[in-house]
Amino acid sequence: MSGHDLPFELPAVGLGTWQMWGEAAERGVRDAIELGYRLIDTAAAYRNEAAVGAGIRGSGVDPRELVIVTKFPEEDAGREREVLRSSLDLLGVDRIDLWLIHAPLDAAGSLRIWERFIEAREEGLVGAIGVSNFLPEQVDELIKASGVVPAVNQIAFGPHYYDADVAPHHAERGIAIQAHSPYSENDLSHPVLRAIADSHGCTVRQVLLRWHRAHDVPVVVKSVSRTHLTENLDTGHPLDPAEVAAIDRLGINPTPGQRS
Fold first, then answer.
1. Closest by Cα among 256, 225, 190 to 35
2. Residues 163/184, Cβ–Cβ less than 8 Å
3. What band does 225 get if pLDDT is binned at 50, 70 and 90?
4. What is the C-alpha separation between 86 and 244, in angstroms, rounded?
5. pLDDT tens digits, 157-174
6. Is 46 among the catalytic positions?
7. Ramachandran sector of residue 236 (left: φ over 0; alpha: ψ -120 to 50; beta: rest)
8. Where residue 235 falls among pLDDT bands split at 50, 70, 90?
């Protein structure tokens, strides 16, 4: 079994671009990079890779200084190379830093896609390969069948889905967890979150990001507002262990949520 360390560090907070299109997406990416974001996350299924690429170019920052993540739509199985070439062209880069299978198929279907991912990495078209929205058992099936460990599994890790067994499972296999949808997949009005936010003098959104940080799980966060983009980078005072434990107990569904 072979594992591959990431050739880069996953920033604690990256920019997610789901449901960002056109000029708003371009501006949001450009603003995020100018504010200090160094990971930009998109997907072929978002239909915004061209706008994301334009935002990257408009920032004036060399793409080699960024971690650029995109995802392959599993329903396009059999068209891996064509979709990858399209992503490269639309983003305007010659290499994807992290390429993810957007969501699992059955074991055999995921394996067929994964084999093409391994080839793309070996050819240098992508720096690292991983998966998204895979359950721990689906990750294990893929590793057993291929002998190659995904570098990353991007999942909904927030309080709504919190399962204390997920992080140790991935750590034992050398897989980094990256969280998506910290706001849309969680109840921002929950009284526990609001009380903690009030005690810290911050927003519930910032509490959620600090909770992810307490678990050492980097997160991608969508925003097109400079105010929110700036707010998301403000780590502030860490949560204390009792606060982290209180948020841990909010979990009601320990499985990844909807694809994002």
1. 225
2. no
3. very high
4. 42
5. 999 999 999 999 999 999
6. yes
7. left
8. confident
The DSSP 8-state label assigned to residue 258 in this structure reads S
Q: What are phi and psi of 239, to 5 degrees?
A: -70, 150
Q: What is the distance between the alpha carbons of residues 76 and 71, in angstroms, rounded to a whole number?
A: 11
Q: What residue type is assigned to position 68 of the chain?
A: I
Question: Distances in Å between the alpha carbon of 203 and those of 48, 61, 211, 226, 228?
Answer: 29, 30, 12, 16, 10
Closest CA to 247 of 200, 202, 210: 210
Active-site option among 37, 46, 161, 162:
46
Ranges 120-124, 182-186, 247-251, most confident? 120-124
* CATH class given for the domain over 13-189+217-235: alpha beta
Q: Answer whether 0.90 is exceeded by the pTM.
A: yes
Q: Which pLDDT does position 260 carry in this prediction? A: 55
